[in-house]
Structure formats: structure tokens, C-alpha cells
Amino acid sequence: MFLDQKYHLMLLCFFLALLPFATVAQSHKNISLGSSHTAEAGNSIWAVSPSGNFAFGFQQIQENGFLLSIWFNQIPEKTVVWSANGGNLAPKGSKVELTKDGSLLLNDPTGRQIWSPGSSGVETSYAAMLDTGNFVLASQSSEYLWQSFDHPTDTILPGQVLNQPSTLVSRYLETNYSSGRFQFVLKGNGNLVLYTTHYPTNAPNFAYWTTQKFGNGFSLVFNQSGVLFLQASNGSIISMISSSTSPTKDFYQRAVLEYDGVFRHYVYPKSSSSNTGSLQMAWSTVDFLPSNICSDIREDFGSGACGFNSYCMFDGGIKSCYCPYGYSFIDPDDVMKGCKPDFDSQSCDGSSPETDLFYFHEMENTDWPLTDYEYFKQVNEDWCKQECLSDCFCALTILGSNECWKKKLPFSNGMQDSTVQRKALLKIRKDNSTSKCEGPVRKKDQSKLIMVISVLLSSSVLLNLLLLVAGFSVVYWWRSKSSKPNQSSQAIVETCLRSFTFEELRKATNEFKEVLGQGAFSTVYKGVSFDHTRNHIAVKKLNNMVKENEEEFKTEVSTFSRTNHRNLVQLLGFCNDGEHRMLVYEFMSQGSLASFLFDTSERPSWSQRMQIALETARGILYLHEECSTQIIHCDIKPQNVLLDESFTAKISDFGLAKLLKIGQSRTNTGIRGTKGYVAPEWFRNMPITIKVDVYSYGVLLLEIICCRRSFEANAENENQMVLTDWTYDCFHERKLDLLVEGDNEALDEMKMVEKYVMVSLWCIQEDPSLRPTMKKVLQMLEGSVDVATPPDLPSFTTTMCL
């Protein structure tokens, strides 16, 4: 969290005395007048700072879109810290030039100007990229006539000072550098404010964080010791913003107003030999503000922290936007565009009130404030529900302390948090008629076409008879042709997924060249999507289509077509072409959780592992309670939890999933799953419930905590071979530190380690009725519900934890 001003004031003054923030003189390589650089693939750098830490030139953002920018040049990410033309990318062949008269110009291949800093350039003698990350136009006497530090985009660097008035503007999306929906403003009156905007205009809308400090001559300073603060003209500290304990000599640093509206202070180790401790070679968050953007944004006009009809969750500095049940994102690549209902709204036709066609989906600790149009006191839940059902405008009602709020579309300021002491009730159409797929032309449309042709051509009885015979022939041929595909094709034709041909996927995977993974019945290949994004995809090819595989294929397509959640791998389409059965998924660039935990020499950070544990729990909770059809996954294990480029956890592989009908809580089925993760009831011919996934998650959680497999045959001590047994022994003997031995970050968080271990022990109780639901599991992990001491596990034999 961001630091308390009073607590750090004296410490900061000491730092400032030792390390003044003023930029020292440095050498640099000059760009002479008349020099230019062309935007081409593989030809990015025009100028490099003397140390090589920063570069200036073109970054290729799209296939034919280049960004004139400054970036960190010695790390793989090449993180952009400043850009000139984020809202107007330069096409290939564009040129940036320092003209002979001293002007800096960016022109497209036709000579049309895309960007210029606006200075006359008459005194400019050269340009240079400095070691601070500042790009300058300088005179013969080395006076800076223009500098990027005076015109920041979304980032501020050590050594940079922003004077009144100054503004940082977030980018639109992570890979879209045009102006976004948030601003960080040092106002003329000295107040430092985070704003939402009246997007698409850049006018400030709602202030969701502020220093509430006022005065002339204020500056926002990011000094070389890694301290970010608001300073008065006399040099005194007005307000602390952030402070890093990582020295700039060993760490790169930046503070960014990101596209999600959170202002974050990052550090990145300069080399593996730096004093980085257990920190991985990646950008790590030091501080962020506000403390909870989801609850801090409550604007009268606008959607809030997320888009209209969506809701916001904030966990560990990460903002996530979700659609409620029955709604889906308008644009999954831009969640701020909000969510749309996937069903027809209630009719306001007085003759057909449709009150019996809707029901309520409950969401605990959830609210959409400031969008209510009616409010009632001293009423109960049943009364509130009935009132909303009888009101065709009512799409949502909020309950709390015998109070009832009615809301209509669109909802705004949505958030879900344990501090929200209210319950949301979404009005959903019972038939959940969400299927609005544009499929093949229906047969009735074919019949209409034939009838129209018949009418147009009929001029005699004989011609009508001929056309009638021809029409029946066409219909017969069409039906016989349509009946050829196998039953699995008919079973999945109603899904809103794209159907690919075998030839399309053969080309997309370059003849199935690159294997991502292989199992007993399938192989997964890496491919490239067909759309303009050319993003990678994963193609799962089922081998030797026997009956069992055919059922697995139908199950996975049917299951995925019912799901839509951030923590589930997205199914993009399928292939059911002749003998070929394939599934097309989004590509998860960081591989499986199993590889992340067990196949690396360096232990992943504790905070990252806990984030993955929470995200996996949320995915399972969605399957159990929030999906339109309740789903038991049946094979929760680290191999089936995949990680995207941001290490977001997503559950995959639904081939063994079991669907439950509405009102059904248990099912009878043969043993499924993977040894070591299978709940005891599988072996006892007991009815199977969602609690089997809870058991598997408990084992998985222990693996995440301890960073080891559930069974280690080569363990030095035989008492440690079975992780669940060893964990219980360590818990019973109060020696939990042995589970995370060598993990300094976890050892510093032993209270959390103990809590997570207790949750896992509840999950792996032999009696399914003793196991918590996934909702309760998530609440315990998040801290909104206390964790009681788990009972003894009868299946364990207590041995000494050595």
C-alpha cells in the first residue's frame, strides 16, 4: 500500500540529503541535423543512451503500425516509457527526421506530417537519448530546447520532475497507445488527482484519489533513490506518493498510470547478479494507488471502474472486470465497453407481463450503486423480488438491511468485495435463450426460397407441376445431404462456436508442426489465428476416434459452450470434419501450472503462487455455482491449470466434466480424474457431487503452497512422500515452516501459510459433507470468513514431521 506521509517524512528527508534528485550531467551520443530513421520491421532503434539502458525509435505495434517511442532497451520486454503518436500509428516506410533547420518531424511515406514536438527548431543543434530516459533537442551550448520529460505520456522515471500543471494519460489498452479513460493530474492549484474521463473526450469526470494539497510552485518528483513525492517550491515534502527500497543502481524503476486506472510503481532487476534476492527477472509492483479502485470510483456519469453492466474485483493491486451471470462482454478484448444481456429483456406489453418467465440469480457482496430508480425501506427479500418481477423496467435489485433498491439497464459502478454488505439479485429469463448464433441457413429458409421462385416463374399449371417436382427434389437432396454428418456434429451444431475445417487447421498449425503437449488420447499443437490479429492459438487434436474419445469430444464442446469466465480457458471453435475431431483454444503462453511450479530451477514467488490459487478457486466456483449449467470438472490438477502471458490462471481440459441438470446435486458415474487428486468417494461407489472438485483443489492448493508434487517417490524421508500426509503431520506438530523451507517470502508470511494449509485440510476431508463449498473456500482464502481448525483426518496416520 502507499506510504503514510507522517511516518516516512523524516526517512525521506534523510534519503534526499544523501541522494539529491537533480539530474547530473552525462555524456550522450548526438543525433546530428539532417539525420533520419525509417519505420521498418527489424529496424527499430534510431538512438541509444550511453549506458544502453534506453532507446529511441520505432516499436512495431501492428502489422503496419509503428510507434515512435522511448523504451527500456536492456530487458526482454522493451517496455515503452514515452510515445509520440499513440493515437496515430505510423505506417511502414514512415520517417522521423531531425531536419537541417532543427525541426523534429514524423512523416508518413507520402510526406504527410504525423507528429512534431511543435518547436521552431531554429536554435536546435542536435538531439540525444540520455541515460535518464529523457530524449532532448539541444542547442549548441547544450541547453535543452525540448525534452520528452516535459511532455510525459503515461510514465514518470527516476530523475523526472513534473511541474504545475502536468498530466499523465493512461493508454487505451495494454497494446493500444491512444489516450485512454484515466488521467493523473498535477493541477494548477497544486492538488494531485486521479480522474476518470468523460471518454471519448479527455475532459475530467470523477476524482477517485487526491492528495488534497493546494499551493503554487508544487512539483511531482521521482528522485534517483526511487522516492516519488509532491514537493513545494521551498523544497519541503508536501505528500508522499511512493517509495522503493530497491536502489536504482540495481533496479530499473518506473511509475505508470496504467490502462486500468491504477497508478503503479514498478522495479525490475538490472541483472541476475544484482542483489535481487528471490525476485524474478520481471517487473514487480512496489506500490499502487488507489488502495481499491473498485470501491473508490463511484461516478454519477459513466460506468465506474469497469464497463456498464460489469462488476469490478480488486485483489493484490490487480483490477479485474467480470460480466454477471446471463451477460457477456460486448468486446472481450476491451472489457471497458461493458457487458450485454444474453437474453431478451422482460416485455412491457401490458397484455403479456411475463412475470413467470424470469428468476433471480444471487450475487453476495455485490452492488451497482448510484443507478437505482426506486428505493424501499423495511421490506423483506421476497417482497423485493416480487416487486422487481412485476416491473418490466427492473433488471436488478439490491438488498441490504431490510432495504431494497430497484435498478434498470445499464448498471454502473459495479463491484464485488467482502466489504460490501449487500446482495445483488439479477433478473434472468428462465429459458436463458442466449443462443443468437449466425449459423447455416435454416431449412425453412430454403423452403421459402423455393416457394418464391415457384411463384415468380409460374405461368401455367404444367410449369407449376414441374416446379413442384423440382422443389421436392431439391428439398429431398438437401435433407439427405444434411443427414450425412455424424451424431456428434448434430450434438454441437447449436453452440455459438466457430466450426473449422481440417484444412483450415492444418494450415493454421503449419502442418501440425509444433507440439505443445501430448496425452493418452490427444495432442495439442501451436497455431496462428485466421483474423487480423494473427494471435497464437492451441489446437487439440483427438487421436484414434474410438467411442470414448467421441464422447470426450462432445462433452468438452458442450461444456465449454456454456462457460464464460476470466479463469477458464476460452474455447474458440471446433473441427468435426470427417474423421477429424479437434478443439481450438486461446493460446496460454506461460504453459501449465505444473511446469510453473515443478519444472523451474527457481521457486516462483509466494505472492504469485497465492494469486494463482485464488484465480483457480474462482474458476471452479464459477463452474459450480455461476454457470448456467452446474459443472463438475472431475480432473482438477496442476496440468489442467494454464497460465497466460500475465500469469493469470485459467482452468482447462473439460473432457471428463460432468454436467448436472437444474436441481440435481449429485450424479453416479465411473471413476474419473487423476491418481493423487481423486476424492475417496470415487472408490466407494458413492454419488458424486461438486465436493470431488473441492478435494482435488485441496491437493492442488498444497502443491502451490509447498511448491512440490503431491507424491514424491524420491523424497529423502519416506514420511514426506505423500504431501497430504506430511502436511497434516506438520500441522499437527506445529512445524508448518518445514513445508516452505527455503522460501523466505513464505516464511515471512507464516500466518497466511497456516491459514492456507488449514483451508486445504478442510478441502481434503474424507467425508464430503465436511468439505466446504468452493464459495466458502474462496471466502476463507480472501479473509472474509474465519478459518476454523480442521478436524483430524481419519485416513491419515500421524507420524512425526521430520
From TrEMBL:
InterPro entries linked to this entry: Bulb-type_lectin_dom (IPR001480), Bulb-type_lectin_dom_sf (IPR036426), G-type_lectin_kinases/EP1-like (IPR051343), Kinase-like_dom_sf (IPR011009), Prot_kinase_dom (IPR000719), Protein_kinase_ATP_BS (IPR017441), Ser/Thr_kinase_AS (IPR008271), SRK-like_kinase (IPR024171)
Domain Bulb-type lectin residue range list: 30-150
Keywords recorded for this protein, A-Z: ATP-binding, Disulfide bond, EGF-like domain, Glycoprotein, Kinase, Membrane, Nucleotide-binding, Receptor, Serine/threonine-protein kinase, Signal, Transferase, Transmembrane, Transmembrane helix
Membrane topology: Single-pass membrane protein
Record's keyword annotation contains Lipid biosynthesis: no
Domain of life assignment: Eukaryota
Signal peptide range in chain numbering: 1-25
Protein name, as recorded: Receptor-like serine/threonine-protein kinase
Organism: Stylosanthes scabra
